[in-house]
Each structure stands twice: as C-alpha cells, then as structure tokens.
Amino acid sequence: MTALPVLAHKASESLSSESKSESSVDRGAALTRPPGRPDNALFYKEYRHLSRKIWLRPLLAVIPARNEAATVADVVRGVIDTLGCDVLVVNDASTDDSATRARAAGATVIDLPLNLGAWGATQAGMRFAQRNHYDKVITLDADGQHQPRTLPLLLEAMDASKCDVVIGTYAQRLSAAKRFAWWYFRLLTGLPVQDFTSGLRAYGRRAVRTLASRDASLLDYQDMGVLMLLYEKGFQLREVQTVMSSRSVGKSRVFASWFVVARYMLHTTVLCFARVSVRRRIRARVAAAEGSA
Amino acid sequence: MTVLIVSAVIGFALAGTILYLVRRDHLHGSYAVWWLAVAAVTMLLATFPHIIDWLGSTLGIAYPPILAIVIGMAFTLIRMLQMDIDRSRQERALRRLTQRLAILDQELGDAREQIAKSQAGAIEPDATAARRQLHEVDH
Questions:
Q1: What is the pTM of this model?
Q2: Distance (Å) of CA A268 to CA A112, A125, B87
Q3: CB contact under 8 A, B118 and A6
Q4: Can you give the CATH number for the domain in which A108 is found?
Q5: Cβ separation A127–B99 shorter than 8 A
Q6: What's the confidence (pLDDT) of residue A16?
Q7: How many whole angstroms separate alpha carbon B42 and alpha carbon B36?
Q8: A178-201 pLDDT tens trace
Q9: ipTM of the modeled complex
Q10: Does residue A207 form part of some domain?
C-alpha cells in the first residue's frame, strides 16, 4: 500500500508533462522525467483508462551498438542534449564496456544475450518502444557518423509531411561501389530511395508496430527487406538530406570486405526475387505518385 | 548368400540403433515417427533385397540397384529441405526470445531498483538489508 502515494504523484507529474507536449512544438522540452528512466508498468495499468493519447510517450531514440565503447557515450549525450528524449542503447552482445558507458551517459540499456546483428538489435528497440508506449522511434548508429543535430530535421520532416518513415540520407558519401550497388537495388526493387542502408531513420507508431512484428524478425539487414515490408504495408516514406561525419572509429558493417559485399548482394537479390509481387506493387505506387505530382 | 547376410546385418543394426534411440527419448515427436519408418523400410529391404530388383524390372530400369539410391537421395533432399524450414522457424523464435529476454531483463533491473528505493524511503533500517538481498540475487 505504501506505493500508492508514489503512483499518484507520478500520475500528476506525467499527466501535466504529457498534456503540455500536445500543444507545444518542442517535444523534447516537454519531457520532465529524467532520461532513460521509464516509469513502472503499474502506472500505465492504473491510468490506462485515461485517454490513449495522454499516456503515450513522445519519442525514443534507439541506438544499436556492438563494441562501440569509443563513441557510444558521446552519441548518447549528443542525442539527449539535442532532443531531450529517452535514449535506448541496444547492446548487441558487445565484448567491451559499451553498455556501461552508455548507461553512465544517461541511456537505458538492454543487453541482448546473443548477437542478433544490426537489424535484430534495432528490432529489439522497436519492441521496447511498443511495450513502453512510445509514439515515435528514431534510430541512429552508435559509431558517431550521424550527427545528433540533424535529428530534429527528421522529426520536422515527419510532422510536416505526415509520413510514417523518414530516412536521413547523405548522397555525397556514396563511393562508386555503393552507387553501383544501390543502382542495382533500385533496378531490382523499384524502390524510389536514394540511400538504402542509412541507419538514420525516424519511424511513426504504426511503422514501429509493423517492424516489431514477427514478419520482420527473419530479416538480416535493416535496408531492403525493411523498406520493402514498409512499402508492402502501404506506409509513406520520405528522404531528407542530412550531413554525416565520416566514421571516426570502426567500419561499415555491410561494406566491410568484398566477400561480405558479395554475400550481402546475393542475400538481397534472393530477398527481392522472393517478393516479386511486392516489387510490382511498389512500381505501381511510384508511377501513381509521379503521375499525381 | 553372403551378400544377403551382410545386407541383413547392416539393415538390422541400423534399425536397432534407431529403435534404441527412440526408446531412450533421444528423438522426439515427429522425428521419432520418421526414423521408425526408416527403420521399418531398412529391415524390410535387408530381409528381402529382391524387392528392389523386382521393382526395378517392373518399372523398366536396366540396373535396378540404382533405383534404391535414387529414392534414398530424393528422400534425403526432402528431409534436408524440411530441416531448413524448421531451422528458419526456430531462428525466428530464437531471435524474438532473445529480444524479449533483453527487454524483460531491463524491466526486472528497473523494478528491483524501484523496490529498493521505495523501501529505503519507507523504513530506513530495512533498506540496507533489502539492498544486500538484491546484491545476493545479482551474483
């Protein structure tokens, strides 16, 4: 019974902050809770009957990290400073102290006991967001190549265009090999996307629900399969040009060596051919969009 | 005659091993059914190897023993395909379990922290004991 006053107190605090976020433009400032500290689930059970909108949390930043101890703390701090939102670091079975550093920087950390890869870790973040009732999810890499100050751009684009997914792209970073790979993928899928592998994305709640589902669990990379799934379900995608810094430490997971690239291309080709019907639908949608524009 | 004996010995040894494994619960459910069927066919063919010759000549195959090999290979391929389907299913389940475990683990840590905090606030002397208990659970 001693817990009750605590709950009541939290309710009033959280309610006032959330209703503020309804009207204010600056989502980050509306959040008064210290970052990375979700209230306990009991609270949501108790106050569930209040309208759905009220107990929705505004935004969660998901950062999948595997052995990124050198950069993860700076990224977490950067995101908290810029957006003031909750930050979740998904520790993908790191062997270094990435998790400790991320926690010290103010992030909530979930530790995957097995290595699931970049997409598996991101999906864990999506499931966390769904379970804890977050409205939007923004994902970025832990290696510091995405600058936190570009994050508001994505959210603004999302609000302005009512899109479900916004991808942060930086076309200039493409090497010749990547440019060829992406030309090939565009040809294969008909997806009108410039930067397929960008980990800098913002997802709306419906998109998060789809990506947290079982349908997305057997995907290996966060690019083609995810994008095709989103297109298949009829979500609106948009790209926003952003600035990225070159990786300070570490390498691209996808474009690491020729063998890895070849395997990646093969996987993706198979995936695309497995979803030929989706490709046809994507082409139809793209044509319709061009016709109306 | 010796050929017959050798094939019978091999066939019955295989069938015996399978039966032993099924009885000891090393193979479960549908796998056990499949392997029992394999054991039955092996015993049948080991006892009456002429079934293959008869079947081959009935189907018009010039060299009947090849029939056994072709059928065996076909079943092996089907079985392998089924195994990969099964493995994909398991991979999906494993990934989702891993994610769920990580999320629940985080919630558990959070809940423990809150309990420790509320106990520390409510009754001062008990707080250290509660914290000690928590640490014991941790290690």
A1: 0.73
A2: 25, 23, 20
A3: yes
A4: 3.90.550.10
A5: yes
A6: 41
A7: 10
A8: 777 778 888 887 777 777 778 889
A9: 0.72
A10: yes
